[in-house]
Fold this sequence. Notes:
Elements: H1 4-15, H2 19-39, H3 47-94, H4 96-111, H5 117-125, H6 129-153, H7 157-165, H8 170-204, H9 213-222, H10 226-254, H11 256-259
Helix pairs in contact: 3-4, 3-6, 3-8, 3-9, 3-10, 5-6, 6-8, 7-8, 8-10, 9-10
Amino acid sequence: MTTTLPARASRSGTALPRWVSAVLPVLLLALWELAGRVGGSVYLPPLSKVLGRFARDWFPDVIVHDLLPSLARFAVGFLGAAVIGIVLGLAIGMSRTLDDYLRPTLEFLRALPAVAILPVAVFVLGLGNAMRIAVIVFGVVFPVLVNATAGARAVRPERVDAARMFGLSRVDIARRVVLPSALPMISAGLRVALPIALIMTVVSELVGGQNGLGFYLTSHQQMFDIPAMFTAVLVLGVLGNLLNAGYSAVEDRVLHWAKHA
């Protein structure tokens, strides 16, 4: 019984036509338009009204004033967290001593909700870009760090021993042996961190912002401009999907060997 049910579920999943996945979003958008027109609620404007507002406001004013600054903070925060997480994760994965020293502190910090750091970051760093990037880095770094650590520990010991026999230093072993072997795990961590970075970008812009998608969202919420709010939500949804698709394409191209290993 326990082995039959998963098999049936798998056969059922593969039997679904691929067009179903494309039809469902279209159906949801059509339901949104219908509900907005029939319901007449100010809290749920029709999709056509939201798209009209998007076309009127976003090109190019909102894109230049809000979208591009958010993307810049997202990129700096994500890349900074990636570098910190990979370097620290590889070091911890290669050294049990370092792991013993840092684990209690890192476990404490990892357990903190990233959003809870926002008030502290405001007090310490003010309301500028440094605070917003620090919040993004804090939210993103731990998924990368944990996966980099696990990837480094999964490296076969004989590879490391062989590298030592050839006289490689610890830095060279990390760069030429451990890092390539840990790349699939690191990439999985980066994939998890990608949507978190987008979320933390918006969260960091909710307080004391002068621009950015989070600022745009809250400022129009305070003005009770519901269609404008929905344009920001739509843009964030599309942006998240584009980032994920772009990362998947890069991952497939760079790490194609890992899928056949």
